[in-house]
Design goal:
Length: 174
């Protein structure tokens, strides 16, 4: 039995220097509850992957920790041509502690699905979007995002430090 909880503050500031421009900054903490892997997961991994001859050095536990993320963002929203042109952009930095990562292990024991924690991940990026209304009833829209992520500390898989975080795209385009 274990309880997972976290205070999740959020703060936002907005400044409108004109009717066509808004500047904003915000901070928020995200939370994903910890939980339990199948009982005996750690022993199974230690016996099959961490002992000789493989000696993988994996640190899989029967309980995985809560994930928290502290996100900072600053950006703008602007319009021109009587609202026919809208542009918005933002930059962000997110610090993730105990990022939850699903892993699958296969061996003589069958298939084992576990959640491990990546101790510290930094994610930073920028996004830009624009829409234009060339004629009444028609709107054209485009947006893009670039993201850089880095695993800073990972006791579950120490060799992954310096790599990008899993399931984090480098960019998106719409």
């Amino acid at each position: 039995k274990r309880t997972f909880d976290q205070f999740q503050p959020k703060a936002s500031l907005t400044w409108k220097p004109s009717g066509d421009l808004s500047l904003f900054a915000n901070y928020g903490r995200g939370f994903k509850s910890g939980g339990f892997n199948n009982q005996g997961s750690r022993a199974t991994i230690n016996l099959n992957f961490n002992s000789a001859p493989i000696s993988a050095g994996l640190d899989i536990r029967d309980t995985f920790e809560s994930e928290t993320s502290d996100a900072f963002e600053a950006g703008f929203k602007a319009q021109a041509l009587d609202g026919a042109l809208n542009v918005e952009g933002a930059g962000y930095v997110t610090r993730v502690k105990n990022m939850q990562f699903f892993e699958f292990f296969v061996g003589t024991f069958g298939l084992l699905r576990v959640v491990s924690n990546i101790d510290k991940v930094d994610i930073k990026g920028a996004e830009l979007a624009a829409s234009v209304r060339p004629v009444k009833g028609w709107t054209l829209f485009a947006s893009g995002n670039v993201t850089d992520s880095e695993i800073k500390r990972n006791r579950a898989r120490p060799d992954s430090v310096g790599n990008e975080s899993p399931y984090t795209s480098d960019y998106t385009l719409n």
